[in-house]
Amino acid sequence: MSHIKAVLFDMDGVLINTEPVHYRMWKEAFHNRGLEIDYEVYKGCIGTTDAFLMDLIWDNYGRDFRGDKEILKDAAAIEKRMQREEGFPEMPGVKEMMHQLHEAGFLLAIASSSPVSRIEAAMDHIGVREYLSLLNSAENVARSKPAPDIYLDTAKKVGVTPKECIVLEDSENGSIAADAAGMICVGLDNPDSGDQNLEKARAIIHELREFTPELIRSLTEV
């Protein structure tokens, strides 16, 4: 019998296909400051926080935007414009997947590096808030992915142990975080998230419809 009680989701690249949008957003924000960023550099921050990206920019380009609140405001304004024009790009099958898992009795929660206001807006937009027990952001913890903080904090807040959680992630940083938290990780191979190393994942899926109660049970039966 499966011991899993909760399913924890990364959001970007898993529930909404926003990684291409994020890259365009940051590319424009840095372009406005005379810096052209390369995707090969940018993809190292996928699954982490804005602060992690600023460290990457410093390490690779020698430009220091750490603590620069203006570029964060600029990026947020660019993203809002893109959202008005394009909406949140929903991943195929997300509603069906969540409904199925909810009906099977799993607690469902978000454990994302995005700000909580953005998580709320995205989940409202795609219409899955009713299935979710918690929307948790890395804003609420000390360290971002690949540290396990967000996953440990989310498990604690929904009232389960790490061993009672399974995680769905699309990024290397996120899968490392889930593994470090002592949770089983399933990797979603999303081509739009770049060439991510998901070796920490117990299984790899290519579409959300593959992430079923039956798959969870097959990975966690004891």
Report on the structure:
The chain is globular, with a radius of gyration of 17 Å. It folds into 2 domains: 6-17 and 89-220, Rossmann fold (3-Layer(aba) Sandwich), CATH 3.40.50; 19-86. Helix 1 crosses helix 4. It has helices at residues 19-31, 39-42, 50-61, 69-86, 94-103, 116-126, 149-158, 172-180, 213-220; strands spanning 6-9, 107-112, 134-137, 165-169, 184-188, 203-205. The chain has a 6-stranded parallel β-sheet with strand order 3-2-1-4-5-6, sandwiched between helices. The protein has 222 residues and is α/β, with parallel strands linked by helices. The N and C termini lie close together (6 Å).
Summary keywords:
six-stranded parallel beta sheet, 2 domains, alpha/beta, Rossmann fold, single chain, 222 residues
Q: What is the domain tally?
A: 2
Are there runs of 5+ residues with pLDDT below 50, and where?
none
What's the rounded overall pLDDT mean? Answer: 94
Count the helices. How many? 9
Topology summary:
Elements: E1 6-9, H1 19-31, H2 39-42, H3 50-61, H4 69-86, H5 94-103, E2 107-112, H6 116-126, E3 134-137, H7 149-158, E4 165-169, H8 172-180, E5 184-188, E6 203-205, H9 213-220
Parallel strand pairs: 1-2, 1-4, 2-3, 4-5, 5-6
Helix pairs in contact: 1-4
